[in-house]
């Protein structure tokens, strides 16, 4: 049987306040990434920071790096190479590697230090830092204070390991260490060489900023969307990368010229008048992320419930009764549910322990078919996951490592009416919905005046964050209506106050 080739497309929507990346497989939305201007992920970022306080009793120091809260650096995470690298000073030696109370002999308040965020802020805790600096790429990770080449254990072929090591031994500069990522297996020699040169160039630019920039300052953003896009998302398995912003498109092309010129023909600039996510019907698909119940093609459904401890996915036959007998109905529903569960796990970035309660099946062969579909659906997942066999109660457990903030966290906020036990679409997300409605309806509303009715709470938010509506300031006015939900809006045409919210969409 011929293996089905999955058609993969990456669609990028750029707006001054947010960038969105959608990954489609056979025209089905499987992953969505959002980068908001005021919600940056600092993990992996490199900073030139200032030591604010040293606590020998804790064996730690608090470092000011420009985030909302000071960050935490433990004695064991200090790397001496980066303490004095940018100033005229004698190299220091750690007094006693196991005695963290000696931290005061290495760090002093007011001292500048180079650090990288290891773990992001959680609740009231600041970010966790490390002094071990690294710069990641698609194939390699550069360590500017190491000298060895380490190769991923997942590259099993000794011939391939030797090939990659020989390539890098010829091009690598002294004093630079490298970790070879699994993605490099089978990569062209020129691609590996070019990426090393690009990473070395990036580090030299970082060094220049570390020398001259005034602390506290971020000198490298690891999770900037364009870096993540090139490093982890865009590869030879992607058929098309379509971008709707000319500057972002040029930036991507410029970076690919340094590391993977063969991927450039797959990059396209979207030039149509209609919004790019509408052309691929992505906006409607995003809306379903907030639904706890997802309907299957046969008429069955799955229901997803998230708790603090785990995620529960319940499978139901719904209106589907099958054509012949009950076992056929159950198997068909479970097979569809397995494929859809895998997609939803990736799309919503569900993590931790996930319990899937399939409809009971007595046949072991049928259970194996369902497990195979589930594993196949998660095989393309970038997050580490494991699918366990059916339990005696007919349930399947999945463990999955979290990759990033969940889509639910990005697009929603705690509901103020139920003490945080539920969530509603966030004010940022609703504001962007209004803006996209205006863009989508632009042809029909030209030279027309409108009043947009929103909840008073949302109106206060819009007054503070109204940059996106500047181009429509002569056409629209906002009004408040407490009967409109915080996550909704109503567009009225003036002067007749006709409700046109659904007229052009």
Rg measurement, Å: 26 Å
The number of helical elements comes to: 12
Number of strands: 27
Uncertain parts: 85-91
How much helical structure, as a percent, in the residues?
Answer: 25-40%
Topology:
Elements: E1 8-15, E2 18-25, E3 28-36, E4 46-55, E5 60-64, E6 71-74, E7 112-119, E8 128-130, E9 135-136, E10 140-143, E11 149-151, H1 158-171, E12 177-180, H2 189-212, E13 217-220, H3 225-233, E14 240-243, H4 246-259, E15 267-269, H5 276-279, H6 282-287, E16 293-295, E17 301-306, E18 310-316, H7 326-348, E19 352-357, H8 364-379, E20 385-387, E21 395-400, H9 407-411, E22 412-414, E23 423-425, H10 427-440, H11 442-445, E24 450-454, H12 456-464, E25 476-480, E26 490-493, E27 498-499
Parallel strand pairs: 1-14, 11-12, 14-15, 18-19, 24-25
Antiparallel strand pairs: 1-2, 2-3, 4-5, 4-7, 4-13, 5-6, 7-8, 9-10, 10-12, 16-17, 17-18, 19-21, 20-21, 22-23, 24-26, 26-27
Task: State the gist of this model.
The chain has 505 residues and is an alpha+beta fold. Helices cover 28% and strands 26% of the residues. The two termini are 43 Å apart.
Explain what you see.
- The chain has twelve helices and 27 strands.
- Mean pLDDT is 86; it is low at 85-91.
- The protein has helices spanning 158-171, 189-212, 225-233, 246-259, 276-279, 282-287, 326-348, 364-379, 407-411, 427-440, 442-445, 456-464; strands spanning 8-15, 18-25, 28-36, 46-55, 60-64, 71-74, 112-119, 128-130, 135-136, 140-143, 149-151, 177-180, 217-220, 240-243, 267-269, 293-295, 301-306, 310-316, 352-357, 385-387, 395-400, 412-414, 423-425, 450-454, 476-480, 490-493, 498-499.
- Among the domains are: 46-130, Nucleic acid-binding proteins (OB fold (Dihydrolipoamide Acetyltransferase, E2P), Beta Barrel), CATH 2.40.50; 134-214, Ribosomal Protein S5, domain 2; 291-400; 426-499, Hypothetical Protein Ychn, Chain: A, CATH 3.40.1260.20.
- It is globular, with a radius of gyration of 26 Å.
- Strands 4, 5, 6, 7, 8 and 13 form a six-stranded antiparallel beta sheet that branches. Strands 16-17-18-19-21-20 form a six-stranded mixed beta sheet, covered by helices on one side. A five-stranded mixed beta sheet has the order 3-2-1-14-15.
- With 505 residues, it is an alpha+beta fold.
- The two termini are 43 Å apart.
- A hairpin with an 8-residue loop joins β7 (112-119) and β8.
